[in-house]
Design goal:
The protein is α/β, with parallel strands linked by helices. The chain has helices spanning about 5-15, 40-55, 85-95, 125-130, 145-160, 170-185, 190, 205-225, 230-235; strands spanning about 20-25, 30-35, 55-60, 65-70, 75-80, 100-105, 120, 140, 165, 195. The chain is about 40% helix and about 20% strand. Helix 3 packs across helix 8 (about 205-225).
Amino acid sequence: MDPKLLRQLNAERAARRAAILVTDLERGSDRLVREGDDVAGELREAVERGFRSGKSGVAEIDDRQMFLNVHLPPPRIVVIGAVHISQALAPMARIAGFDMAIIDPRTAFATDERFHDVTLHAEWPEDVLKEHPLDAYTALCAVTHDPKIDDYPLAAALRAGCFYVGALGSRKTHAKRVDRLKEQGLTEAEIGRIHAPIGLDIAAASPAEIAVATLAQVIEALRKRELAGGRAMRAA
């Protein structure tokens, strides 16, 4: 592999950006395709599938065999709120292949006893997210029901382009949330990306059921997400 391409690939991975190394198996030549790059023809379709599925493999492109080595940032879920839903969601997320972190400044809830095997930050989201910023491969789930805790990370998630943003609460609660986020300068289109009430509509009642509905919606959002530079990716 060309050392220059390797350095470029490593830089993309370090920055949590998606990239695919495309190798022509007949010619031995390599090409690095970043998510959002302008790609045409059959290769465009193949890299789109790779970016959505995360799976590497061989594809026939213009009558040649190409190997697509897909490098996606590990998807992660950041949960605002060390509540019962979070306790149920943590083991499910791990099984589904997501890294997960919980942020909650309320030290009575954010304890190692309740979350002994989860990355836990018993701090305000404003402080944590400065050190651990959100990105396009992060899902943000706000479940505290407390605007003082939830609002900042929700706004940060929308501005960072997180692939999923969800918030617990009734439609009446969300309407008030919308007003507050507008006061922070967010547009209706940006706020409209929030899934509220959180989770797929499966009539979930218990914290565990809400966790199932939430994880299912997160997975759906990840696999059906708009790729970076989507218009360019689909251009001829």
